[in-house]
Amino acid sequence: MQAPRFSAGNARQIDLVDYLESLGHHPQKIRGNDYWYLSPLRSERTASFKVNRKLNLWYDHGLGKGGSVIDFGMLYFNCSVKDFLEHLQNHPGSIATSFFHQPFQPQKELISNQNSAGEKKENEEHKIVVLDTRTLQNKSLLQYLEKRCIGVDIASQFCREVDFQLYGKTRTTIGFENNAGGFELRGPDFKGSSAPKASSFFDHGKEAVSVFEGFFDFLSYQTMHQDKTGPLTNFLVLNSLAFFEKEKQRMEVHERVELCLDRDPAGIRCTQEALKSSKKFIDQSHQYKHNKDLNEHLVQQQRPKQKQRHRRGRHL
Question: Which of 117, 138, 212, 247 is the most exposed place for a label (fewest CB within 10 A)?
Fold first, then answer.
């Protein structure tokens, strides 16, 4: 299934609750149609950011602002409508499978958190449920890795093959585990994540840390430096740019923070703001300045070599 092309019209159909979850934001309480959050747009201790799931609209009582998912995205990423639609197109998450707004059925009032029994019962068919994990072996997934120019030996060090259930159907994808036990899930026709969503940190006792937005960029880095003896830095895979501020304290413990974020409007803006905040932050995206991200750069570099190997194989 291909990710949809995003116009302002179909972007407004994205379910706000599911979209906020993909960014790592979970409701503090649910009352009928209303989902209450700690505001994703500012710091607060009492939830005052409300999403009415029936109307698919939000309102931040602290800011006195609200609107559709587009209005939220423009504030959250500090960008234009055009840039936000481009962000959705390039980083669709699990939009293709579960983000589009469905008619909402009002429910009994409940207070929910990630571990409550009430939340697990609510909309369970819309949740990704991990069934099993194992060593990477599925042929189509191995071909997908090859297409992304990631060797099986590299991927197998950090990833698992994951069976999960969604909408009553079982699927198999590549899974990259985060520090909270959830998985980032990728395949030829799927991009999503299982709860809980969090970042992935690899501590090698180094004074520097390399920061990546997604795990395919992290795997690309490992591929590009596989001839080195041992890791050069610690590694932090955000798994969502929304976790950058949350992980900033962990980054700043290091003497040097090497940023390898995407070169889209959101990634560039995040990098620029980090550079202004501390001299510890170093922008490494200049190494792939003509590409969207590190994996696209790797693919561009490796594709000619792959084609050459395939031609030699045919001759033999």
Answer: 117
Domain that holds residue 264: 200-298
Taking alpha carbons only, the member of 182, 184, 207 closest to residue 195 is 182
Query: What total of structural domains would you count in the chain?
Result: 3
Per-residue pLDDT tens digits for 154-195 = 999 999 999 999 878 899 999 999 999 999 999 988 888 888
Element (H, E) at 272: helix 265-277
> Is the bond preceding residue 304 a cis peptide, omega within 30 degrees?
no
Query: Is the same domain home to 156 and 215?
Result: no
Q: Do both 132 and 212 map to the same domain?
A: no
Beta strand segments in the chain, E: 29-31, 34-37, 49-52, 57-60, 65-67, 129-134, 159-166, 169-177, 183-187, 190-193, 200-202, 208-212, 234-237, 256-260, 281-283
Residue pLDDT, tens place only, 210-240:
999 999 999 999 999 988 878 889 999 999 8
